[in-house]
Please model this.
Amino acid sequence: MNFKKCLRCGCFFSSADDICPNCTPKDNFEMSKLKSFLVQQTEEPTIADISKGTGIEETNINRFMSNKNFLKEVKKEKSNINFNL
Model:
């Protein structure tokens, strides 16, 4: 059995995911919150602006923003957002 270290909390677990089962609901909530925040922006926000506006840690924002599926979902709702954060 292969163990992984959760990218959020650091605990070890066995799964194909990078986030442990305990942190998955938190991740889903924060991704939804981040998506809503980005869609509402009229100007390009910085990572610090996003963190301050959402309460999401910058490390998690960077992780979410590197997820291609997440970016596709946001782009569907707002085609003119710039992801060069």
